[in-house]
Predict the structure.
Amino acid sequence: MSRQAKPGSKPYRAQLRDRLAALGFPEEAIPARVAENLIVECGIPPRTAWRLASELSLDVAAHQYNAVTGDPRAGMRGTRIWEYEQWPERGVRPTIAALRVLAQVYGTGWKCLLGLRDLEQLPAKDLAEYHAEAEPPALVAPEPESPPARTLARARVRPDEARFDDEIGAGALDDAMLLTTTNVDDVQLDDLWSDLDFLAGSYTRTAPESILGQLAVIEERTSALLKGRQRPKQTRDLLLIGAKSSAMMAWIAGDLGRYRLARDLNSAAWLYTQYADDFLARRWVRTSQARVAFWAGNGIESAKLAADGLNYHAPGRLTDAPLILAEARGWSSVQAEQQVLDAIARWSSIEDPDPGPGGDDRFFNITKDRRHYMAGNSLLSVGQASAALREFSTAREAFEKLSLENRWEAMDPMIRIDTGRAHLRLDDLDAAAAQVGPLLDAGVGKQPDMVRAMLKLMATDLSAPRWRSATTARDLAEALLDAHASARP
């Protein structure tokens, strides 16, 4: 090893990697060898050694930890990882669960992150778990007899170390200058945001396949730029663009009934948000996840995702209304009446009379007609038919007040169908037929997947014993099923 690099430093590790590569070690095996060298030759504790061998800063390691867990409440920070690395002399003892996640981040087994001193301080339960698992034992560095602090103090005055003092920080300026290198400029970022805003405004009046394709181009451009180097703020902007474009794509894929794709896109969006560490972005993704989960048939998951989204406050940008209503709708799928009524009450207390979206974001905020429709749909699902009719009536009025360019055309059939279903719950077949008759006479045409689901649901309602003897009910159910077949997006 060259004497020009301080043991354990970045140049030292780079030289070590070169030597290992020259000896024929495959790339995937090199980090483990580097960690071994750092532990045995440099006396670096195992958790720090493995992080350095993976060439991760504390903050990047924390971001990757959160990405592995996929849990927005994990909240790992670089400072906490540093505290884990200081234990047992000081700092915080890492749990076995935390060690398992760190091991995934570093590409090793969790036992390899524990040294002899760590094992001596582990609680009996954790030590038993350590011995119970058939995993290669941790690499244990020779321990000095004296306390680490005193050893470090002696190391600072050893003459053979002093020769390298003039090399400390030699590459710091070069490393810092890399921060000025960028493959993106403000014009490109403004273009990407402008394109996203345009597509968000076009969603209600443009074929979903077209919007999805254009969003895919934005996501691909963003991903390609992220493979290069940017200034930190520019990288964060790109991560936010990636998060929003992926969440919007997931939303629209759900409209098209492509739920597996929608889930994958939402997972990608969430990963972007973890690295961007932005509350508004997390709201975007939780809103999209809750919507996709509900229409894919996972109501409880939808409610929980929506409730979690409310934990991320972003005043003025994405209001609470869509998430509260998504929570109510999720619980309605399992007839959890009290949870639905509680959520509707919370929404009613903040409902904005403005027919517009109620927030700056034109995609994830929803207009008044859609808000009242969601409330009515939730109430209808828990047997509150009269209250649901009032919400559907308000939704209809709000829909008709919107300009044509701001209407989501799927709302007309959805309001009609659910208003008809509410009349059926109140034993009024003629009123139900009057609601959906004009829709069926005009032809449903291609519709989002949720409209098809509602058509089938009303046909199912009409097949109940109450209506079997009614010719009108049979004819109406048949017409609804024909419309369901023809409405595929």
